User: What shape does this take?
Amino acid sequence: MSGLFSRRRFLGLSTIGASAMFLSGCDRLAQNEKVRNVLDMAETLTKTTQRALLSQGALAREYPEADISPVFKVNGTSMPDGEEYARLLEGGFADWRLVVDGLVRQPLSLSLADLKNLPSRTQVTRHDCVEGWSAIGKWTGVPLSVVLEKVGLLPSARYVVFHCADDLGQTLGGSGRYYESLDLVDAFHPQTILAYGMNGEDLPVAHGAPLRLRVERQLGYKHAKYLLRVQATDSFAGIEGGKGGFWEDFGYEWYAGI
Ligand SMILES: Nc1nc2c(c(=O)[nH]1)N[C@H]1C(S)=C(S)[C@@H](COP(=O)(O)O)O[C@H]1N2
Ligand SMILES: [Mo]
Assistant: This one.
């Protein structure tokens, strides 16, 4: 996993926004031609940034089934340690439950059968890991929006946190368990699903059985496997290392847009 620490990504959009704002406040400077050119450029950049921010509903690319990768790499945990997961696996996940709680009107505990009885979505998408590999897979699951509508988010909810069964034995301020989070834009995005199927079969253990997150516009580490709990919250303070995700606690970007 050490390779995950080696790559850093920077956005720099806020810098552009700040300089554009500064320039547009200085009318006198705009009389100078050189400054005007810079101003025009800054304005174009601002528009581009705004457009990027506005297209919150844009879909990630979906592929034909013929493009599904014959081998889909397994990364991170491939089999959670411990009695609890072993027992659930042995029972075919009949005793597994997804707890949905936090800032919701009606907390729920859902079985795999409950989730499979809800409306489903299937999508063939490309998974991009921060370590530099990609793979195309077919995912089937219940849209997260369907589950969130069932529990009813309270108006104070701003994020959704995903708690996982696997303990990685290292942490920066947390328990060592893998966890992740999304804002409500991505939580309600149509391609954000809680997947129980992969390539037409039950989700394999190595890929996160019985349930994993798919959030197709973000990098692989956001796609939490081995889900146990979905928690609505208004802040990450007091949750694991406080940065909204296992790798985020070690310095990774919280918004891992592709
Ligand atoms: N619970 C859990 N989820 C996880 C991880 C993990 O170690 N534990 N690794 C992440 C990373 S870095 C990637 S790239 C993907 C890998 O998913 P895959 O094993 O299905 O390829 O899962 C993500 N979700
Ligand atoms: Mo990854």
In short: The first strand starts at residue 98 and ends at 102. The CA atoms of residues 27 and 36 lie 10 Å apart. Helices lie at 3-6, 13-24, 33-54, 83-90, 112-116, 144-151, 184-187. Residues 3-250 form a domain with the Sulfite Oxidase; Chain A, domain 2 fold (CATH 3.90.420.10).
